[in-house]
Amino acid sequence: MLEKPTVSEPRTQSRRPRAGQTLPAAKGPGADAPLDAAIARTHGWCRTWWQRFHAASPWLIAVPDVGPTCEVLLADALFHDLDADEREGMLAWIRSQQGKDGGWRDLDGEVDLSLTCLGYWALVQHGDDPEGEELVRALRLIHELGGARRANLTVRLWLALAGAVPWDWVPAVPAELYLLPEFAPLSPARLSPWARQMVAAFHLLAESSARIHLYEASELLLYRDDEPIPPRLTAPGLAGDLLQAFDRTIKLARALPRGAVHRRALAVATRWVDEAQQRHGGWFSARPTLYSLLALRAIGVHSDDPRIRRGLDYLRTARGVVEVEGRELRAQGLSARPLTKVARLGMVAGAELGEPAAMVRERLLAAEISAVGAWQRRADAPIGGWPSEAQAENLLDLRSTCVVLSALRGARTAATRASLRRAAEVMLAMQEPDGSFARFERGEADVPLSHLPWRDADQLNLGAPEDEAKVSLSAMVLRELAVLGWRREDDRVARALTWLGEALELHGHAWSVSTLAEVLRACAAQCPPGDPLRLACEAALRKRQWEDGSFGDELATARALLALLELSPRGEAVCVQCHRAARALIARVGLLARETLSAAPSSCEGGLPGYGLSPRLHDPSAGVRDVHVALLRYRELDIQEETQA
Asked: Which of 206, 283, 529, 549 could form a disulfide with 584 if both were Cys (CB 3.0 to 4.6 A apart)?
């Protein structure tokens, strides 16, 4: 058990200790050996991940839960695109993730009814015995949790596609909504970019009453009088009852003959699906790609159509190797190579593997957005910034933009400077009215349709306005703007800082260490030492240090150390808390030195909304990458301090 967090001393202003303060022991010959060994070790781990990332069978650097893998296995009953090795590797990974109680868990470690339904169904679909002990336990758990009627929208969609339940189990979208102008509150164009593509595909599937020859999995349902108990699609209450009645009216109207207006609305939805396909062959990410392919097949597109083939190829590139107990298995990722991982790993590890920094930067520059996208309809911005992955030319990702800007910081070419100027304008244009910043499109966190009492309404937004993901993103943007010369004297930067201050006051007590560290780094870049926001955030982070010097796990400790180091004025001593955090990281890396790479520090990164029903991703390279960067920075400042002393 770790000890209760205590408040440590603030940073020192000189090498002379104050009363009651203990400074690190004087360094003798070889005193830096553990630090140097830890840096070399983490660098080696990063190089290994870089090699795996670019192997012939690449490893997944961002691993979701089992949901996408299960859905790809179910969809293969229609596409017949998986080869035997892919199929068996994916099935083995699903089996490896089942808990002893029979259920599958999300990345927070909680039993998830929807994942358990999908895991059970995918295994039975591909030949596992439903009478086997593991699947019997899974089915028992599903019934205890209320059956598939309580599962999320995707499970009910697959049940409808299999013919196990009527399409009434899926919320109806009136086709005529697609004829509304974009500024209308109920227009599907106002949805978050992920939801917009998913809802369009769901709508086409429901309108065509599509069927796939799947194992029906009727045992996932609970029955009353030999009829499956239907789900409630709306929230309890009068508003929910009225909306439920409206939903039934829409579905009854589908049976009536409808004319040119309805056909025109379906044509608009179909065009949305067509136009959203990216140059890399996929849609927004793996799940919108899968459902868009299903929708295209449902409206009559042949299996050899170039759109279908390119989409299936994209899904294949988004798959990768995952390691479980020494076995190399396969999983479906949510995207192909994310630019955030290419940038971070490339700048840390690429230089010693035939990928000098100039080549990595050149590759990143080539991925800059050069096509007009839907996001520009809500942001008055020029073409620029970066997407979440290469060749997604009309989908801006502000998080990727910030990470790429950090990687390009040392470049001095004219092309780089032009890209930086465009990126600054893009970031400022993505500011919301409240002062925060949007990740993909302005207004994505507050969609009018999400205020209706639908049971699945939270999937229409990209998170919520107060989510930690938005806080962390806004802090990243402020830090990059500071490097580019945009300071708090600018009214847009001032509004963002005010929003951060209000968010810290209201929700800061519940923030993770990583979020606090990100906000503190933004404050260090934008605020003078005596600024109230900077002092409040610094105090909140310092209070989170534990007795052993860490701030929790390795990733949180590394990020906290990096934030505290950025507070150290040039020429002044590194604070005691930084020394303690660095020692905790060095000790932890030393303990893992004799272990395999899978035992190295990793991260379950939260706050990645927009990627469907898997809002969290496990990043096995994040821990070693951030530990390496933090220890490098610590050694640099410590050497400067010793030299000046």
From this structure: 549
Indicate the fold that domain 67-332 takes in CATH: Glycosyltransferase (1.50.10)
Domain segments of the chain as ranges: 29-59+545-645, 67-332, 338-430
What residues contact residue 89 under an 8 Å CB cut-off, 6+ apart? Answer: 328, 329, 330
This prediction has a pTM of 0.89
For the stretch 570-627, pLDDT in tens is 667 889 999 999 999 999 998 876 556 666 777 766 545 446 666 678 888 888 899 9
DSSP state of 42: H
Residues 249-273: pLDDT tens digits? 666 555 555 678 778 888 998 999 9
Quick one: the chain helix, strand, coil %, rounded to 5?
55, 5, 40
Decide if 448 contacts 192 (C-beta within 8 A): no
Q: Which helix or strand (DSSP H or E) is residue 322 part of? A: strand 319-324
DSSP for residue 549: S
SS (H, E, C) 350-413: HHHHCCCHHHHHHHHHHCCCCCCCHHHHCCCCCCCCCCCECCCCCCCCHHHHHHHHHHCCCCCC
Rounded distance, CA 341 to CA 335, Å?
12
C-alpha 561: how far from its chain's center? 23
Query: 532-542 and 513-526 helices cross at what angle (nearest 10)?
Result: 150
On whether the CB atoms of residues 621 and 341 are closer than 8 A, the answer is yes
Rg (the chain; Cα; Å): 26
Of 175, 177, 197, 174, the residue nearest 186 (C-alpha): 177
- Start-to-end CA span in the chain (Å): 39
